[in-house]
Design brief:
Elements lengths: L4 H10 L13 E6 L18 H4 L6 E8 L5 H10 L3 H4 L15 H7 L3 E5 L17 E3 L4 E5 L4 E4 L15 H14 L5 E7 L10 H7 L3 H22 L2 H4 L1 E5 L20 H4 E7 L10 E2 L3 E2 L3 H8 L14 H6 L6 E5 L1 H6 L4 E6 L2 E5 L4 E4 L15 H17 L13 H9 L22 H15 L3 H14 L4 H13 L3 H14 L4 H13 L3 H14 L4 H13 L2
Parallel strand pairs: 1-7, 1-8, 2-10, 2-11, 3-4, 3-7
Antiparallel strand pairs: 2-9, 5-6, 8-9, 12-13, 13-14, 14-15
Helix pairs in contact: 6-8, 15-21, 16-17, 17-18, 18-19, 18-20, 19-20, 20-21, 21-22
Length: about 575
Amino acid sequence: MTINLLRIAAGICGGGIALLAAEPQTPVILISVDTLRADHLSSYGYQSIRTPEIDAYAQNSSTLFTQAACQIPLTLPSHTSLLTSTYPFENGVEENAERVPAGVVTLASVLRSHGYKTGAFIGSVFLERQFGLDPGFDDYDSPFNFAAGSRISGSMIFAGGPQNPYSVREKRDGALVVGATLHWLAQHHGQAVFAFVHLFDVHEPYSIPADIARQRGISRYDAQVEYADEVLGHFRERLQASGWWDRSLVVLLSDHGESLGEHGEKSHGYFIYQSTVWVPLMFHWPAGAPAYPARVSQPAGLIDVAPTILDFLHLPAPPSFEGESLLPDLKTGSEAGAVFSESVYTRDAFGWAPLRSLRLGKYKYILAPRPELYDLEHDPGEQVNLVAKDSSQALELRTRLEKLLAHRTPHEQAAHPDITPATRTLLQSLGYLAPGSKRNSDLTAPDPKDRLTEYHLYEQALTALFDRRMEEAVATFSQILAQNPHNTLARRDLGDCYLEMRAYAKARTALEQVAAQEPDDYMVQLELGMADEHLGRLEEALRHVQAACKMFPASAQCKKELDAIQQKMK
């Protein structure tokens, strides 16, 4: 919720400080550097490498937030919260490969309604147009060849052939993203614009070879950060030369960080420790803006960025926005509100408990079967759990967190929104979509902290599958399922292994069990159809593949399989 502008103005002017109005058509450039940790930038105190170009976004008429956090450490869900200013549990986008609800109000749609030209320039398939973040953008530049996706694993499946000669697969280089942005800005020179720029260079798979990083004595992650720094330096220089820099509000941030082994996590999305939720946040103010502080230590969330931009432009935030403008606190120096974060990947993929946290001041509480409380001022690495020692502080934050979750109305996901009525009919005819198959969110489920060994074993099995070491993959997936028969994702991947090995009866048995829990997963339906086809169960195969094709009509893979089954049935 954005604080009323008249009240802000009255309060500031009453203190003897003149409020300089932002230009009514101030350009806005919002830059998201995917997977960029705040503490790997020299402006945040990092010393292993230098990042002078990114640091420059927080120098000279700029504000750097030292304690900003994302609401969820996954690309699509985090950007959905950023651009809609809604919580993940509210908008229903809590995994990659899900779809943003139709009719959502975005920062772009608000600005376009006030006369802005809007453009988005995307660096990764995770934000491909089909996922639904394009409302409000006049131009949405995402040249990817995405065809289908799996919600339970967050993975994407690509089409059989390129849609255009400039199409790419998982990602495109940041230099190309910046080039496309600059070309678009040149076409709209002198106009009010909102440009959203998404760079994916710091996210795996890395483009800089490992030997180059070793020769320089730095990690591959830091080598990618250096490359992003170079790209952003070129972008800033071009903005300055073309006049955009001085008259624009330029915001630089990251959607989430990256765990580099902290707490046993090797990437992001599993836990919600600071390594993955702490993000950089920098505002470069246009010429003539009020003199805001250079550094601010108050906690802030990405959900607050859109309301802050609108507040600076003197534009009202829509009722759907849940974040708060950070501008009043920049003037008063008061503490902002509590900051929420979550991760439900282990719930959706494995049936384990979700993780949710609330930060207030220096304290951060994590709601889990075994809850955690940390003093981030004295323990930034979150090594000393204070729940038992400071139970009153833990109870206060838990109460506030539970009130936040209860106060908001979650987006209804139980009706499987990714499938059409026709697809629903097909799935019901196969005996799926039964009540009660919804994801487990009970805190009596296993704590992800206690299942880290199983998760690492799953990662080993997945690597063996990708490397085509099928016998090893089957053995490892089977080992996981012997210990935990409820690991849905491991069972689905075991079915995939059997399918690749042409053990069709075993594949069908595994995939049928998964379909009972996840009937609207594209890969489950497609692979069930393929197994049934080879077993001579053509009627069932047809219905499974039809269900998959209706979920993702653009999939060439699905169309090919459907044609093959129909030919056999003639």
